[in-house]
Amino acid sequence: MNNQTNPAISIDDIRTAATLITPYIVRTPLVESARLNDWLGFRLLVKAECLQHTGSFKLRGATNTVMSLPDSITDVVAYSSGNHAQAVARAASLRGMRAVIVMPADAPAMKIDGTRAYGAEVVTYDRYSESREAISGAIAAERGAELIPPFEDVRVMAGQGTVGLEIARQCAEIGVTPDHLISCCGGGGLIAGVSLAIRANLPTAKIWAAEPADFDDTIRSLASGNIETVDPAARSICDAVVTPAPGEMTFAINRTTLAGGFGVSDDLVLRVMATAFKHLKLVIEPGGAVALAAALDGRLPAGTEYAVAVASGGNVDAEMFTRALQAETLV
């Protein structure tokens, strides 16, 4: 599973990851609201990864990677807008490793503070004029450290895929076979792993990507069959999922597993964050709310009976969450 030249991961890799990371993660719940279900006309289950340690699904992939490293590795480096940063920092601290995390200077303050709180050294950069990959690569080379990318890594994808394993088991426990599953998509690591797990366990379910409207690179890539990029001038409040293009490894999987995708506006995301707080009692960050936004905005095909949306993270600054709470709820 550590062979980075092979983009393929299997369901066995995901099951192995699940066994490895179980002591370090939370089995997050599937939650629902009867009122939202009545309003939608179908049963919507929300996978609350915002309740995970460090506040996002990223802990799964980071932990699988860090815990699978040989004892000879003492230092790790990662680059992230915040959720992967905190995840790698926590996993490294549990393993007794030193961590350096390269983060954009404009990342939410709570994500930077959280990363430092786990003992990591934070190096900031300008996301619009500097290359995080180049900065991280130089640090890794200088320190002889293991570089842990946020999505272009089979160990990371396998760890994220454990979200899909849990969803399948939880649906079986309540006797539900979902027609559709929606997950956020930035670089594509989460949805790549989840889609493989869902296809292995719930083969009739269609899997959809959700992205910020101006960062719909995966949606456009699925349509064209080639990796498409984002306009460098694009901006979004959904910092956790604003990547310039899909990963080559992740897209190689997603082009075969996904039914399509939905782009959602920042205004809709804010309203959905308020709606989720009102009806589900969840605090969800903007990037973590895009899948739920697509589900609540009526994007799924007519005739849907059961659907799952992944609420992928909850690391939101008070200022941004206050802005969301001031938005009008959907219902």
Please, could you describe this protein's structure?
With 331 residues, the chain is an alpha/beta fold. It contains 14 helices and 10 strands. The protein has helices at 11-21, 34-40, 58-67, 83-95, 109-117, 132-143, 154-160, 162-173, 189-201, 217-224, 248-257, 266-279, 290-296, 318-325; strands at residues 30-31, 43-48, 75-79, 98-104, 121-125, 146-147, 180-184, 206-212, 260-264, 306-311. Helix 5 (109-117) links the parallel strand 4 and strand 5 (121-125). Helix 3 packs parallel to helix 4 (83-95). The longest helix is centred in the last third of the chain and has 14 residues, at 266-279. The protein is globular and about 55 Å long.
Would you spell out the secondary-structure blueprint of this structure?
Layout: H1 11-21, E1 30-31, H2 34-40, E2 43-48, H3 58-67, E3 75-79, H4 83-95, E4 98-104, H5 109-117, E5 121-125, H6 132-143, E6 146-147, H7 154-160, H8 162-173, E7 180-184, H9 189-201, E8 206-212, H10 217-224, H11 248-257, E9 260-264, H12 266-279, H13 290-296, E10 306-311, H14 318-325
Parallel strand pairs: 2-10, 3-4, 3-6, 4-5, 7-8, 7-10, 8-9
Antiparallel strand pairs: 1-2
